[in-house]
Amino acid sequence: MEGVRKHYGILLASLAIIAAALPCCSSQTTRGFQFNVEWKKVTRLLTPSNGDSIHIKVKNRIAQNTTLHWHGVRQLRTGWADGPAYVTQCPIRGGQSYTYKFTVTGQRGTLLWHAHYAWQRASVYGAFIIYPRIQYPFSHRIQAEIPIIFGEWWNGDPDEVEKTMLLTGGGPDSSNAYTINGLPGPLYPCSNQDTFIQTVEYGKTYLLRIINAALTNELFFAIAKHTLTVVEVVAVYTKPFATTSIMISPGQTTTVLMTANKVPDFTGMFVMAARPYLTSVFPSNNSTTIGFLRYKNARTWKGKSPVDPSSLKLHNLPAMEDTAFATKFSDKIRSLASSQYPCNVPKTIDKRVITTISLNLQDCPENKTCSGFKGKSFFASMNNQSFVRPSISILESYYKNLTKGSFSSGFPEKPPNNFDYTVLPYGTNIEIVLQDTSFLNLENHPIHVHGHNFFIVGSGFGNFNEARDPKRYNLVDPPERNTVAVPSGGWAAIRIKADNPGVWFIHCHLEEHTSWGLATGFIVHNGQGPSQSLLPPPPS
């Protein structure tokens, strides 16, 4: 049996004014705001083990409110530590602190943590790696483990981007760059020195823990001429399979094995690159971020490298609109489903909920000018309802039975009705069919469910057919995730065992869609006895 120990730490959220990384080499200096979060003053990497009890005290050193979310951690009976503002907690005010207390139970692998207030996760994020207490279920000898975290950079303040978007009713400004481990790379202006370079040794195998912490885009990633072997997604082991590249949505993680078995050219390096997977007609950052895999002791050019970064060939990297690759890659992911790591997908269900995902338009209020399509305001919805955060956390309202005016229960099992929430008895096996619509624009949506993992038992393009499509479900080894990329113009069916009492947020992990209201949630009632009941709230 895996033991229990405690991790203690302090996260310091502080606001710094820093020179933007992309001033286009001009004499003018663009300045922007960025949040910096420190873990023990050194790193953004949290590394507990399965079974650890975690206590993290967050001290808010900025004037704005903030919260932190431990993305993918199941938070069994500890919804107070989940983090989404006004859903499971009121925000941490400037100058105040909050201690997140939870236990890592039955999970091992790569997750992430990030701010969950407004658009702060644009720069407040990091890796959350849960180490197993026993050997990995793959036999490769690993030379080193390498976190690779994708992000986005704005020359301006991302919070102001959201505020302007909501004020005008228009779409948000795109980011100015993508980053690999915080560095944009040489394809962006004045960023040659801000390039991620990872040194490897020929013949050695490395475990890459890949995390998409970007705010607004799904991404393709590849390393030139190298093969990646997927062995785990979102802290769940998978059947290994080889691929030349991956597609990864915001909030998703993919762990791969990579063997350094190629002979480099005179540079001694191979390009690694990430670019967006585009399915939307909205303006977007369609640039590419690159870093390098540098082979140790390779015979390299002794003088100044004659390589022009803009001329580099991005081997293996799919085109930005390569839906065929994205679909094929996702379809390859299967749970390991071994005796040691079983696939506990619910074979039968108690309830099926069909939920439409929509981008919408709303008439502009009188005496106001809106900059959305046709002079209207952009909104988003699930089952034709746009989520609005209340002034008190929903979990506190539920716990204290303060339901009047804070939330409504009975989210419709089929669209549309005027409700926001579904309430489930403990232990319910629920199937949620997420259906993309074309009210305004077809788009791939990464939908994240808090507090529970789920199994993607089926997906497809077009409209879900309740008579036909369930016959094709995979109930043997479907992928287990916490964030599902719902196909553009299609559907995804997920199955959840509602065995974690509390209030749990469901939302799109494209941040502008959540701001527009593409979110809902569900309440799981207490079961029988203390072990199936929500723990009392913390003193604060």
From TrEMBL:
Keywords: Apoplast, Copper, Glycoprotein, Lignin degradation, Metal-binding, Oxidoreductase, Repeat, Secreted, Signal. CDD domains: CuRO_2_LCC_plant (cd13875), CuRO_3_LCC_plant (cd13897). It is found in: Secreted, Extracellular space, Apoplast. One of its GO terms (cellular component) is apoplast. GO terms for molecular function: copper ion binding; hydroquinone:oxygen oxidoreductase activity; oxidoreductase activity. It is an enzyme of class 1 (oxidoreductase). GO terms for biological process: lignin catabolic process. Binds 4 Cu cations per monomer. Its EC number is 1.10.3.2. Residues 1-27 form the signal peptide. Its cofactor is Cu cation. It catalyses: 4 hydroquinone + O2 = 4 benzosemiquinone + 2 H2O. It comes from the Eukaryota. The keyword Secreted applies. Lignin degradation and detoxification of lignin-derived products. This is Laccase. It comes from Populus trichocarpa.
